[in-house]
Amino acid sequence: MATQHSLVLGIVSGAYERLREEDSFQAGLYVALAAAVGILVAVILYFTCYTGILKRENERLGKVLGSLKREKETLGKEKEALQKNYEILKSKNERLGKEDSSKVGFCVVVVVGILVAVILWCAYYIACFKRDIKRLTREKEDLQKNYDSLKGKNERLGKEKEDLQKQNVLGIVSGENERLGKGDSFEAGLYFAFAAAVGILLLVILYFACYTGILKRENERLGKEKKALQKNYEILKSKNERLGKEKEDLQKKYETLKQEKEKVEADFKELLRNTNMCVYAVDRDWKKLIEVCVKVTLDPDTASPCLTVSEDGSRVRFTGEGSAEWPSVLGREGFTSGGHYWEVEVGEKGYWVLGVSTHPHEKSIPEKPGEGYWLVRLVKGKTCKAVSQSVDQTLNLEKMCKMWGVYLDHGGGRLSFYNAETRFHIHTLEGSFPGQVYPIFSPGSHDKGPLIINTKVKNV
pLDDT digits over 39-76, tens only? Predict the structure, then answer.
């Protein structure tokens, strides 16, 4: 019994150990998997943060690089200005150097000329001295010959000569002569050396005096030029300040005039919108209209059955019997942008409609147009109205014109009508043109007169 109990305990303990080992293995596996996931998430976060830091650093370096480029351009401009100043100073120094060199060279030439003159004068004096010595030597020889010839003839002189020789008078005299000759030569050399030294000293003193005077005058001249330049600088500085103030005043006046001009233009546009007054278009404005003149051709496919369009697409007339009030036809050309101008001759007709439309498939104009119509309509030859979705306004015209000009400013949202004969502005409709708009024409249904598109617009 005890053996069976111990066996059961051994089996249970072994199973427990095996289960514990299996749980430890799964737990370790889970821990390893969690650690791997955590490491992967940390690496992803690290690289995300590092990428953001690098991106911000690149943006900062880009801004720094841009500022460095701007500083480089500024330094380049300053370098060019300094280079120009350097060239100016260099040319001025070269000019001054050339002037100084020319003056110093002149002084050197003068000094050299004086020295050459002194040397030539000394050489001439020495040559004259030698010539006198030779002359005296020849005279001595002549005297010696005369003495020898007279020696035999004049015994008294011979005896006196002998007496004088005995007394060494001639030796004393000759020694004295030699001594005097040597003393004279030494003194003459001494005097010549002294004179040469004094002359050279005087020349050096004169040279330095002249050079010092030249430098002094040059310094005085440069000082005067400096003062003059300083005065000019002060004058220019004050002038620049005055011009700067004048520029600021002019800028303020310009801004004021600009604001006044904008205000006047706004008031004028407001006046045009709120009144029916006719305004004459000056040559400049009329020329702008003529420059954007387009050739409008009527499209028979868009015409009402009771209308007849000419073969060249320039005329339309009512030829039906009892049809819609305002049968219409469109132009072939649709406009999506820019400015466009065309002229229509209405003649003496009592009924017609001119304008633009965004309805390419409508073949008649409603009595009360809604969205997509901008028109001017004449009824019974006397009532002229500007009609759109938001406008139904009677135009008080003193005289009905026979040639109408139509100007479409697609981008500006304006459709203007002019008396093409007198160039007077009649009325302007404003609105937003969505997409493509087409010129629209209606000759009415009460008379047979045609509407004629003017293909020969007169220039200014």
Answer: 888 888 887 887 778 788 778 777 877 777 787 787 77
Q: What is the DSSP string of 206-235?
A: HHHHHHHHHHHHHHHHHHHHHHHHHHHHHH
- Strand positions, DSSP E, 275-367: 279-280, 307-309, 315-318, 329-330, 339-345, 352-357
Global pTM? Answer: 0.43
- Which CATH number do you get for residue 327? 2.60.120.920
- Phi, psi for residue 428 in degrees, rounded to 5: -135, 125
pLDDT in tens, 421-441: 888 888 999 888 888 999 999
Structure tokens at 211: 């050079």
Last-in-domain residue among 167, 188, 203:
167
- 64: which 2 tokens? 């720094």
Q: Report the domain count for the chain.
A: 2
Alpha-carbon distances of 51 from 41, 44, 130, 295, rounded to whole Å: 15, 10, 109, 62
Residues linked to residue 354 through DSSP beta bridges, in sequence order: 376, 441
**Burial level of 161, CB count in 10 A (0-12/13-18/19+)?**
middle
